[in-house]
Amino acid sequence: MKVLMVCLGNICRSPLAHGILESKLPEGWSVDSAGTSGWHEGERPDTRSILEAKKNNINIDRQRSRPVREQDFYDFDILFAMDSSNYTNLCNMAPEEGLKRKVRLIMNELEPGQNIQVPDPYTGGQSGFAHVFEMLDGAINAFLEKHS
Length: 148
Ligand code: 4NP
Prior knowledge:
Blueprint: E1 2-7, H1 13-23, E2 30-35, H2 47-55, H3 72-75, E3 78-81, H4 84-93, E4 103-105, H5 126-146
Parallel strand pairs: 1-2, 1-3, 3-4
C-alpha cells in the first residue's frame, strides 16, 4: 500500500499525517506527503507541526514540502485529502478520470460518509495543531485496522 497525504501547503496537516502513518507503517508500505499548492516548496514543516509531532515522539523535521504532481496519481494507491477543498483540487488534478477514485477524505476512515474536515491550523495557535494531531491519529488508526 502506497499512501500520499495531501493538504494545501504541505507544511501543517499533511506532514503530521505523513509522520503519524510512518510511525506505525506496516512492512512493505510507503507514505509520502504533498501540497495542492507549491507555495512552500522546499520548506520544512511548520515549527508548530514539528513540535506537536515531537510531543508524540515522532520526528518530522526531515520532511520538505513539495507540490502534488501528475505522476503521484500513478505511483500511489490512495491520495488522502485533509479537507473538501484539497479533495476537489486533487480530483481536478487527476490526469485521467479513472484515477479520481484514488482520492479520499481522510476522516471518512474513522467516520465513514461524514465528510469531516481536518481544519487548517495555519493561522491559529498550538492547540489547533494538537487537535489536528488527535484527529489524524484516530483516522490513521482506523485505516490501519481495516487493512491489518
Ligand atoms: P496546510 O496549512 O495546508 O495544512 O499545510 C497551510 C499552510 C500554509 C498556508 C495555508 C495552509 N498558506 O496560506 O500559506
